């Protein structure tokens, strides 16, 4: 976005530096990565989704409680529909989710040249697959049949390689592209290379994507206090629910249960992010029209 504050780049770069430093002494296994993922996304990631209702209000007139209820029902209904679609067609659903996520994340570099915007979008999902293809494939295998999961991870790795080569060439030959976006994407690649895929995702999602969305949303929505209270409340409920869920999971120690909890976390996240992505993309278009 035009006038994106520079402190956001610093927050991201410093977070990556600290986490990469910490990863030399502590390399978490998948269960620990999940234990880190849920509260981090709840504390730093979800608030950007919790602003969706006020954002919707700035886009459409949601009159009275009926208007609000209609929006919430549509939002949750769409998420439930997507969970059903995922259960019936897990393979195509995973592909659609990855493509839509890349498009959504490319919005983080909306104020930059078209090409760097797209290399950034592809890098967000392709970079971890390029360096840790096997690990990404095994996470995807919780979400879709194994051959599809493998294929998706390989395709992501190839797209990541393409995006990396293309952006390096672009930045080398076009000095005008040596912008803040180029620095952020460089940091993103370092994070993806050095960190486990989920840890990389936590750092990118929480300290760049979410911070950027959150700052834009808070600038434009009305009733900031009320919206912030809803966002904090939602995060607290999610944190409590996830801790209780994990405590039960650890106690029971059942392998199948662990798998189903993983599926609930990822498919639930995927389903909730689709109505969020549609809304945010509309919101970003509106912001662009205003400028
Ligand atoms: C599961 C998974 C990945 C993809 C996550 C995605 C695609 C998340 C999208 C979230 C969205 C779109 C949030 C919107 O605000 C990675 C990074 C490849 C690493 C391996 C595990
Ligand atoms: Fe988002």
From TrEMBL:
<keyword id="KW-0812">Transmembrane</keyword>
<feature type="transmembrane region" description="Helical">
    <location>
        <begin position="186"/>
        <end position="206"/>
    </location>
</feature>
<keyword id="KW-0503">Monooxygenase</keyword>
<keyword id="KW-0223">Dioxygenase</keyword>
<dbReference type="Pfam" id="PF15461">
    <property type="entry name" value="BCD"/>
</dbReference>
<feature type="binding site">
    <location>
        <position position="104"/>
    </location>
    <ligand>
        <name>Fe cation</name>
    </ligand>
</feature>
<keyword id="KW-0560">Oxidoreductase</keyword>
<keyword id="KW-1133">Transmembrane helix</keyword>
<feature type="transmembrane region" description="Helical">
    <location>
        <begin position="6"/>
        <end position="26"/>
    </location>
</feature>
<feature type="binding site">
    <location>
        <position position="209"/>
    </location>
    <ligand>
        <name>Fe cation</name>
    </ligand>
</feature>
<dbReference type="GO" id="GO:0005886">
    <property type="term" value="C:plasma membrane"/>
</dbReference>
<feature type="binding site">
    <location>
        <position position="213"/>
    </location>
    <ligand>
        <name>Fe cation</name>
    </ligand>
</feature>
<feature type="transmembrane region" description="Helical">
    <location>
        <begin position="227"/>
        <end position="249"/>
    </location>
</feature>
<comment type="similarity">
    <text>Belongs to the Brp/Blh beta-carotene diooxygenase family.</text>
</comment>
<feature type="transmembrane region" description="Helical">
    <location>
        <begin position="71"/>
        <end position="100"/>
    </location>
</feature>
<dbReference type="GO" id="GO:0005506">
    <property type="term" value="F:iron ion binding"/>
</dbReference>
<keyword id="KW-0472">Membrane</keyword>
<dbReference type="GO" id="GO:0010436">
    <property type="term" value="F:carotenoid dioxygenase activity"/>
</dbReference>
<feature type="transmembrane region" description="Helical">
    <location>
        <begin position="33"/>
        <end position="51"/>
    </location>
</feature>
<feature type="transmembrane region" description="Helical">
    <location>
        <begin position="151"/>
        <end position="174"/>
    </location>
</feature>
<dbReference type="GO" id="GO:0004497">
    <property type="term" value="F:monooxygenase activity"/>
</dbReference>
<dbReference type="InterPro" id="IPR022270">
    <property type="entry name" value="Blh_diox"/>
</dbReference>
<feature type="binding site">
    <location>
        <position position="48"/>
    </location>
    <ligand>
        <name>Fe cation</name>
    </ligand>
</feature>
<comment type="function">
    <text>Catalyzes the cleavage of beta-carotene at its central double bond (15,15') to yield two molecules of all-trans-retinal.</text>
</comment>
<protein>
    <recommendedName>
        <fullName>Probable beta-carotene 15,15'-dioxygenase</fullName>
        <ecNumber>1.13.11.63</ecNumber>
    </recommendedName>
</protein>
<keyword id="KW-0479">Metal-binding</keyword>
<keyword id="KW-1003">Cell membrane</keyword>
<keyword id="KW-0408">Iron</keyword>
<feature type="transmembrane region" description="Helical">
    <location>
        <begin position="261"/>
        <end position="280"/>
    </location>
</feature>
<dbReference type="GO" id="GO:0003834">
    <property type="term" value="F:beta-carotene 15,15'-dioxygenase activity"/>
</dbReference>
<dbReference type="GO" id="GO:0016121">
    <property type="term" value="P:carotene catabolic process"/>
</dbReference>
């Amino acid at each position: 976005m035009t006038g994106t504050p520079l402190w956001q780049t610093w927050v991201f770069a410093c977070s990556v530096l600290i986490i990469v430093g910490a990863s030399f002494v502590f390399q978490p296994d998948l269960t620990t990565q999940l234990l880190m993922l849920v509260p981090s996304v709840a504390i730093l990631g979800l608030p950007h989704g919790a602003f969706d209702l006020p954002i919707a209000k700035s886009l459409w007139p949601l009159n009275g409680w009926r208007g609000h209820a209609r929006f919430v029902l549509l939002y949750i209904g769409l998420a439930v529909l997507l969970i059903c679609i995922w259960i019936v067609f897990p393979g195509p659903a995973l592909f659609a989710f990855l493509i839509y996520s890349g498009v959504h994340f490319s919005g983080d570099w909306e104020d930059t040249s078209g090409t760097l915007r797209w290399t950034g979008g592809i890098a967000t999902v392709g970079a971890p697959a390029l360096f840790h293809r096997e690990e990404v494939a095994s996470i995807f295998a919780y979400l879709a049949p194994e051959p599809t999961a493998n294929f998706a991870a390989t395709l992501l790795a190839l797209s990541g390689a393409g995006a990396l080569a293309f952006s390096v060439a672009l930045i080398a030959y076009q000095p005008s592209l040596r912008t803040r976006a180029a620095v952020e994407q460089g940091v993103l690649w370092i994070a993806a290379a050095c960190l486990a895929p989920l840890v990389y995702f936590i750092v990118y999602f929480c300290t760049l994507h979410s911070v950027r969305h959150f700052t834009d949303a808070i600038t434009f929505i009305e009733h900031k206090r009320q919206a912030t209270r809803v966002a904090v409340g939602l995060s607290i409920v999610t944190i409590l629910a996830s801790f209780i869920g994990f405590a039960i999971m650890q106690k029971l120690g059942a392998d199948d249960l662990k798998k189903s909890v993983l599926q609930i976390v990822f498919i639930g996240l995927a389903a909730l992010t689709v109505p969020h992505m549609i809304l945010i993309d509309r919101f970003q278009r509106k912001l662009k029209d205003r400028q």
